[in-house]
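Lab notebook, bench 4. We co-purified these components, and the gel suggests they stay together. Before we commit to crystallization screens, I want a quick structural picture of the whole thing.
Request: model the full complex, all chains together.
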Amino acid sequence: MAATVGILRLANRNLLLSPQLVTRPFVASGLLHRNRLQPAPTTEFHTSPRSLAALASSHWNAERVLVVSMLGLFPLAYFVQNPAVDYGLAAAVVLHGHWGFEQIVTDYIHGPLLPRLSKLALYGASVLAFAGLCYFNYNDVGITKAVSMIWHDL
Amino acid sequence: MALSSLLVRNSAAISRLGLLSSSLRTTALSSRLAAPMTTTAQEEMAKFWDKNAQKKRPMSPHLTIYKPQLTAMLSITHRGTGAAMAACVYGFSMGMLLVNPLLGWDFPTIINFVKSLELHPWLILGGKWCMAWPISYHAMNGIRHLTWDAGYGFNMKVLYRSGWFVFFGSFVLADLMLFGL
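Here is the predicted assembly.
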């Protein structure tokens, strides 16, 4: 049993995958063999890569989950001020912003090099932005308190 | 059952490969067994852009020859408000990361500084409105987007009705945020 599974997996990995998959090793190692204890079902044998599509769809789902939770978090932040809400807002806003910018880069920036450079720069900016908001939450008044100060003290 | 069919499939594939001589293998493998039957959307897109660049085609759809429509305007406003707000958050965050440790300006200091400028109340209100309206618009139109994601609201009539609702509703919500709650 285990031997056949091993042979099948070997065959799948070495023979049935397309050359493109060689350049996408993360796909071959990660998504095609999600559960190593069970043999891959017949539907998982493909002559063409399919896992990028799976990646895209799980990314799409993650975006919706984030956005729906933000629709709850923002009204909550209007009434409740505590560190959990502050850090939740920092993470949610930066992640949503990062994915939004990423889509804008994909849509408007073309070419062999420029999209990669932009996405690299975006990564750096997003990391800095998240770090900055965490610093602000820890060493300063925090996001919700800051908004409240703008609203009520000015 | 599933396993036996698996075995049949794969043993067939393996024996087929075994028959191939090494000289044949490279070409036969890439064209018959290993080459993708279909291309991915990403590859299709790359091909499309390459062709456009190669033929020096102008941008399509050509933006200025179209009459501005509500739906398109709301769509680009959604992206515009989102990008502007995110840019402000990124800028604020990185700015505070510099200004707080280096100059010792914490947020209350900045608020007090703005207070000391004694700006006209309308200017302050305008500033707050510039924070309230984008978020109210982006949130409301975001809900509109989520209903599309769930598969509702594509009827042309509904599309326009929800569009106008979001447009006017965003001003109402922004004013509620400024004066109501």
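The longest helix of chain B spans residues 70-103. Worth comparing against the SEC data before the next meeting. Confidence is low (pLDDT under 50) at residues 1-32 of chain B.
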